Give the backbone structure.
Amino acid sequence: MATQGRSFLQVAATEEAAPLLRVVQIEGLVILKIIKHCQEFSPALVTGQLLGLDVGSVLEVTNCFPFPIREEDEEIEAEGANYQLEMMRCLREVNVDNNTVGWYQSTLFGSFQTVELIETFMNYQENIRRCVCIVYDPSRSNQGVLALKALKLADSFMDLYKNNNFTGEKLREKNLSWVDIFEEIPIKVSNSALISAFMTELETDTPVKQCGYDRLQLSTNPFLERNMEFLIECMDDLSMEQQKFQFYYRNLSRQQAQQQAWLQKRRTENMSRKAAGEEPLPEEDPSNPVFKPIPEPSRLDSFLITNQISNYCNQINGNLSRQQAQQQAWLQKRRTENMSRKAAGEEPLPEEDPSNPVFKPIPEPSRLDSFLITNQISNYCNQINGVAGQSFSRLYLMKALHED
Amino acid sequence: MASSGQTVLQFSSSSTSVSARVHPLVIFNICDFYVRRADQAERVIGTLLGSVLPDGTVDIRNSYAVPHNESSDQVALDIDYHHNMLLSHQKVNPKEVIVGWFSTGFGVTGGSALIHEFYAREVSNPVHLTVDTGFKNGEAAIKGFVSINLSLGDQQLAAQFQEIPLDLRMVEAERVGFDVLKPTTVDKIPNDLEGMEASMERLLALIDDVYKYVDDVVGVLLQIMTSANFYQTL
């Protein structure tokens, strides 16, 4: 009996590894609804809920409903939850999939990479195993391309965020850089056969529509200008963040120097006391303000370019290796002391001293903001690239037409 | 039936030069609800939301299905559901109000009159949209109706469903995505350059067509001229 397959208990106990999410399949209906909702309220940013099914490596999104614009008010929170429950209940009655698979939001020129996004992801992830965020950019769609993106938070990043652990060492360990925060998933669009038949019948006769002409216009200045504006703002935030870090490190090194000085003084005192035959003083003094830990600057505000991240990494590297060197030096001193004490017949001192501030780990500023900024900037650069590519194509077209 | 004078069956003049504009989202919604309907239901009925434009056209922008029970002589509509959904939708978009109702299936049935009456209590002059999901005549028929009162002299006889012209409109952004909405599956959403390529190809095709047409016209004109010369020389 035992050889006939596994018992029910065994099967229930083995967890199936979740297959990787490869593609998000959206229905045309959902796309239309998202476009309509975001366009109606543009430039205000709106959100909504996605409903669908999670099937293997495909996440199907079959319906969605919008959220009302929320005021900043305590009681509206409950109303929002009520609205959601009401909508889900009503939709279930007409056989719509009652399963939340994520949410959608509109954005302006691609500036959606904020901490709120990460936090919303974490909130959703607690209840749903796999969720996506669909980001729609109405400003880019006016340029003639359907700007729809499906995002997911990378798993490795999620673990790090949960532990709120953004030190350089951890990040290096996981080989995580700013590209690894969000994962973009390819979108596939599907339509039921019925609606496909309808649309084919109802298609307008003109083969080229006005938006097609718009796309071929040579001037893209306004869009490009806005993009550059956002980019410049981002760079400003970047330099501010940089300054914060510099300030922190300057303080830190100053404190280190003070600690060293104090330690030296203590040691010489101890030497003299030993020579005088007195009890040596302890080598740390937590009440001394020199040893008070300096709080590091608060994080999660803005972004960084990859170059500047490596800059920070180099600084951290220097700092870390400096701290390691300090630890080594302290250890050496302890060892020589122990030798002398053994020679004198005394108890050797322990070779570790966790209370010694030299060994106190320096809390590092989190990299999260830097990563987010970098993501943002690369987004803008990609958009600019796309637009520039279009401009070139149009110029070539003009040239070709003239030559004919 | 002999009455004194000659009374003519009067159709009240179409102050309903009403026409309606339908957004494709409504069609998508209706088809989706039809595909998901309960097994025993033959058709789907629901509410249309939108607004009335200042020039009288009805702009139909959104819709939702309402569960109903239909038997040969009775129609029961879940009114509570209808009101709940209306409230929920209005929380998001307070400007969208009821403008009528839809049903799938070809033409108008007996039960429709009752439902139309119900909706007439909610809004004045509701628009009734029928979407023929059965492709009865081999084509996709979307028709809109309003109810006209038939009166004989002073007496109200009946109400008639009169067809109104419909206009299927698409917002700019929706038109951009139209290629994505037409086929049954699209493997990926085209990005900037691919979209450019597509519109350039279309423009090229259009230019070719126009070129050929002009050539043809010029050719014909030349022919016409030669025949005129011929007649002149006669």
The first helix of chain A runs from residue 8 to 13.
